[in-house]
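Give me the fold.
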Amino acid sequence: MTSAIVMRTTGGPDVLQWEPIEVAEPQAHEVLLRHTAVGVNYHDAYVRSGLYKTLALPGIPGIEAAGVVVAAGRDVRDFKPGDRVAYVTRQYGAYSERRAIAADLLVPLPDGVSDITAASSLLKGLTAQMLVQRVYAVQEGDWVLVHAAAGGVGTLLCQWARHLGANVIGTVGSAEKVPLALAAGCHSVVRYRDEDFVARVREITGNAGVQVAYDAVGKDTFFGSMECLAPFGHLANYGQASGAVPAFEVSMLFPKSNSLSRPSVFQHVRTPALLRDAARRYFAACQEGALDIPESQELPLRDAAGAHAMLEDRSRLRSLVLRVDGN
């Protein structure tokens, strides 16, 4: 027996209940994993609230965690007991002390990356790696626009683009987030609720526009982001925090020969080889000093409800991690 956070219905944070569960022995292709740290993401909150109806109930939420291999199935060749690993999965089940999980979903953790760092940032790091190295390969001298520049993915994008020699323009929603965006590497920060970010981008770039705009906000910023693009510029819409982008004519891309993508990180890491290569690149950027992962706020796993309440309080400025002790 072990324990986990179980959802039996959707609703507010109080539907996240601490309960005993049984964990099956790992199958031939699986490992038994003892979790040490579990990431808390907005995806988890959408599942809990019922906005995303992707977890069969009763079920254990959570898509991101780090831990130690306890046992390995007979067909597992890449991992052995004692190995430190992390994962991101759409199969859920991370809000638990222990679980059996397919070995193909795991990435090895290098010595210089802590379990807390991995659990709090792997999904964000894989997303950032996809955006700056694959969706649009940022080059020295590029102008780059990053919306939500003080957010989890946004700070990584700003740091990585700056490290690659780009000129980074970030947008934030409040005054207290300006220093965070500047610390993450932005050359200029625009408060998009108080300023016309399109006009400011034109001013900052001398009307040249940006080579790439990374937009996780969606409906409220999408068409403005398109206006900010330079000729042959690319718009990567990787989130919809303000709502879905309305339908539009593809011919809007024609005047400046612009391009558009709606990338999915899970397609980016759809095979074990792709997953481990992307993770290796992300962890290398951390170890080389290109990325500085901010300290997370830790809560015990059994207090997942409290973590969700904090997640939905927009004043929070740090990532949240559920610490797993003594399992």
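The longest strand covers residues 30-39.
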